[in-house]
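ok so dumb question maybe but i'm new to this and my supervisor (M.) told me to 'just get the structure for Zinc metalloprotease' and walked off. so i did the thing. is this what she meant?? sequence i used:
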Amino acid sequence: MNPIPLFKVFGIQINLDFSWFFIFFLVTFTLAEGFFPHFYPGYSFIVYWIVGSISAVLLFVSVLLHELSHSVTALHFGIPVKSINLFIFGGVAMIEEEAPNPKVEFLVAAAGPLCSFTLGILFFTMAYFYPVDDLLNGIINYLMYVNFALGLFNLVPAFPLDGGRILRAIIWTKKDLLTATRISSLSGTIFAYFLMFVGVISILQGNFINGMWYGLIGLFLRQASKTSYEQTKFSVILSGYKVENFMQTVKPLLPDETVLDFINFYYPFYRSSIYPVIGRDGQIYVINIEDIKNIPEERWSVVHVIDIAKPLIAYVSPYDSLYKALKLMNKYRLEEIPVVYGNTILGILRKSSIELLLERYLEEEKR
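this is what came out, is it supposed to look like this??
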């Protein structure tokens, strides 16, 4: 299901995944039925659940601040950030591009743990100056603990955790990005299997809940490590190719040409699902073959292409990389995208051409 949009911070969309409600309930339950009654006895059931809920919300505020630190640092270096998603395993900043160099990679990765440790020190200071044995002290101590734990866990050198990205940045200073990602991704896979092993041992010892969480986090990290490496590999491959080498040149339609003209003289040659049209205002528009299917065939000779044309929502330059083109096509869910230079239509780039290039690369890699 699509996440729930909450608000924007520094232009970054904050989203809430539906899986978050499960972890919110689990954290609240653990605090209300275990942590607070054990360390701060004498309060009612309702009070424990209210305090547990407040603590769970503040935990995710801490997670959000952790991810915002990554995002703001990335934005500072000109790296776009699409959103931050809060979900069952915490949060993730959807940073859209690789860092341009190892230094930036290191700083973006280190910003999250630094934020968590800063929060941990802040709550430690608050607990020191408020040594009262009550539930407010309990909330402060809990937030101190979880922020230190969040910072330490993320510093594990296992990609794509922050520590794994720091490791990648260090290796990147000596090797290329892909090699650095491969090594740090391997460390992430090893750590993931370690967590799954700990989970199995915990279950065998009768601690089913902890064992289940170790196993789930291990499975998540294993998949995330593999996916992150594949994304980096594809970005490195596609960044080495320009759109101009893979596009199909086309002659744009003029506004007074009819749908029948397009079907008879353009479509058989180009076989493109979208096609550029020069509007009477000189702007570029596109028609879609799906829209033509909704027009009765007997009207094709009287309907002008400009009448069914739509504004151009996305295009690429011939000098853009295939990686940028693929990201745009995925963002707008396009199978084909016009290639424009200035205000001149040059051609159309198909996603299938990019996928074919990747398939050939993967086949050569296997051999």
